[in-house]
Amino acid sequence: MENLATNQSARLAGLKVLVIDDSKTIRRTAETLLSKEGCEVYTAVDGFDALSKIADHQPDIVFVDIMMPRLDGYQTCALIKKNAKFHPTPVVMLSSKDGLFDRARGRMVGSDQYLTKPFTKESLLKAVANHVKATAQQSS
Fold first, then answer.
1. Is there a contact between 68 and 21 (Cβ–Cβ < 8 Å)?
2. What is the rounded distance in angstroms from the CA atom of residue 79 to the CA atom of residue 132?
3. pTM of this prediction?
4. What pairing do the DSSP bridges indicate for beta strands 61-65 and 40-44?
5. What would the pLDDT profile of 81-96 be if each residue is shown by its tens digit?
6. Residue 50 and residue 2: Cα distance in Å, rounded?
7. Which residues of 15-41 are buried (b: 16+ CB within 10 A; e: fewer)?
8. What pLDDT score does 137 carry?
9. Residue 72 phi/psi, 5° resolution?
10. How many CB atoms within 10 Å of residue 111?
């Protein structure tokens, strides 16, 4: 079992992750969990803050909260996906609502996955691992 955890940490080491959420608690939780797995974690408080960080750090995967001031998660995801350079970057929507409408709207703006908050360590790491697996398959 420990070997499996070590393997996962090795696969995630160096992966650049951007967590966009107006909740300091959510940002810190995700940052702590992902950093322990060897990820380079960047955080942003809203969509506007995130856009410059995406350009600066070019993350491998983005987690974005739906409900944020100024630029919400749907708008942020749409902007990421409309940019040719960042279009392939997986975007995982985060929401405290688990509604069909929210999931459908997330898909419409290009999100790759949907996590309900509060997320577990397992669901967060699984979302990242799915991305790593998909990227490895595309490049082979």
1. yes
2. 23
3. 0.90
4. unpaired
5. 999 999 999 999 999 8
6. 35
7. bebbbbbbeeebbebbbebbeebebeb
8. 67
9. -80, 180
10. 24
